[in-house]
Amino acid sequence: MSKRYLSVQLASPRGFCAGVDRAIAIVEKSLEKFGKPVYVRHEIVHNKYVVEKLKDKGAIFVEEIDEVPNDSPVIFSAHGVPKSVPEAADRRGLVHIDATCPLVTKVHVDAKRQNSEGRTVLLIGHSGHPEVIGTLGQLPQGEILLIENLEQAKSVKVKDPNNLSYVTQTTLSVDDTAKIINVLEKRFPEIQSPRKEDICYATTNRQLAVKTLTKNCDAIIVIGAPNSSNSNRLREVSKSAGCTKSILIGQADELDINWLNGVDTVGITAGASAPEILVQKLILVLKEKFDVEIEEIVVTSEDVNFSLPSALIEC
Ligand code: SF4
Asked: pLDDT at position 313, please?
C-alpha cells in the first residue's frame, strides 16, 4: 500500500544554542581533566537524552551541594545558581566549575549593578524555574521581586516607584514579556531597562522560526523536555501565532501517529536544549509511515560561540 504524502517543514534555527553546547562541553572536559565521576548540580540542561549520555560518561547529577562527596568536583548547570551555592561549595573546599550560560550571567551582573545603584529590581520570569531561583538569589530578599504575569505587573507594590529596574528570564515569550514591560513602564515611568535585551538570541530566533512555520503548517511538533522553559514557550508561541494543533514531545516514541490524521504539512522544531539527533529520529519515524518531503525554513543563521572557563581550556 502506498504511503500518504506528508510535507515536513523544519525550523531553522532549532535545537542546541551556544550556552547548551558550552555547558555540555564543560561536563565532558571536566571528566577528561578530573576523571570519573564529576558531580553536576541539577540537570546540566533540561534534556533527558543529554543527561543520560553524560551519566554514561561518568557524570553524577544531584540537586544540592550536600550530596557531593568531599574532594569531588562539582559543576553548576547552565541555568545559573543563587550566590549561596558557590558559597556553600567554598565552605566545603569543593572545586566548582560554573556552566552558567554567559547570557544568564549577564542578567545576574545587571541585576546586581542596578541594585548597587539603589534600585529595587523586578525580575520577569516563572516561579520555580532554576534560572529564576538563581537570579533571585543574586540579591538580598526584598531587593528583587518576581513578576510572573500581567496581573502581577499591574498590582506589584514597590517601596520607591522612582527607583526601579527590571530584568527578565532569558527564555520567555518575546511577545508576552513585551506586554508585561509595557505595563511596568506605564506604571513606573522611571523604571530602568537592561542595557541589552535579556531574552537571549536563541530564544528569540527559535520563536521567530516557529512563528514562520505556522504560516504554512497544519500542525507543529516541538521537541523538548517538559521542564524546558524555551521548549514550552515554542509550543505556546506557535499556538498564539494561530497553529492550535501544536505539541511538545520529548522524543519520537511519544508521538501518537494518529495525531497526524488530516495533517498535510507538519512543522518541526526543537528547544535550545534538545539535540538534533532527536529531530532526526522523529523524521525517521515519519518516513516509516508517510511519503515525506522535507523543506528547511531558514529565518536566520547563528554564529554565537562561548569560550570554556579558563580552568578547562588547557585540557
Ligand atoms: S537558551 Fe539562551 S540563555 Fe539559555 S543557555 Fe541557550 S543561549 Fe544561554
From this structure: 80
Task: Note the pLDDT tens digit of each residue in 101-116.
Answer: 999 999 999 999 999 9
Q: What is the mean pLDDT of residues 148-160?
A: 97
Helix (H) or strand (E) holding 91: helix 84-91
pLDDT of 315 over the 80 cut: no
Residue 314 clears pLDDT 90, i.e. is over it: no
Pocket lining: 18 vs ligand 1, CB cutoff 6 Å: yes
Residues labelled as active-site residues: 131
Mutate which of 42, 108, 171 to test ligand 1's pocket (most atoms within 8 Å of Cβ)? 171
Measured CA to CA in angstroms, residue 112 lies from 10, 109, 135, 165, 194 at distances of: 40, 5, 10, 11, 12
In angstroms, the CA 210 to CA 207 distance is: 5
Neighbours of 31 (CB within 10 A): 19
Put the strands of the sheet holding 96-98 in their side by side order.
59-62, 38-41, 74-76, 96-98
55 C-beta neighbours (distance < 10 Å), count: 13
Q: Which atom belonging to ligand 1 lies closest to the Cα atom of 101?
A: 8
Whether 50 is in the pocket of ligand 1, judged by its Cβ within 6 Å, is no
All three cell numbers of 248: 511538545
Lowest-pLDDT range, 133-137, 215-219, 305-309, 310-314?
Answer: 310-314
φ, ψ for residue 122 (rounded to 5)?
A: -100, 125
Contacts of 113 (CB under 8 A, 6+ apart): none
Residues 6+ apart with CB under 8 A from 81: 41, 98, 100, 130, 133, 134, 137
Q: What percent of the chain has pLDDT over 70?
A: 99
Q: The C-alpha cell of 144 is what?
A: 528583587
Closest ligand 1 atom to Cα of 18: 7
